[in-house]
Design a protein that fits this description.
88 residues, mainly beta, seven-stranded antiparallel beta sheet, 1 helix, 7 strands, globular
Amino acid sequence: MEITVKKPTPQELETLGVKSWGIWTCEAKTFDWQYDDREICFFLAGKVTVKAGKQEVHFGTGDLVTFPKGLSCTWIVHEPVRKHYRFG
């Protein structure tokens, strides 16, 4: 199970309809998380490290991130997060 990170173009964000997705915010902290469904999110602000097994991924403001269904991981939020997100 791999986490993917990319820098999307404005056109890609518009095609995905990112502005219509929900907003999630989180202060700096560390927590465990399990994905019951695939999540795609676009980071408006923040800086995060996610550890999943041997994989360690860093991302933040301006990144489009996809988390696969079934992923168990630990989030380390270095700077407060504000993101658009969509499950499914």
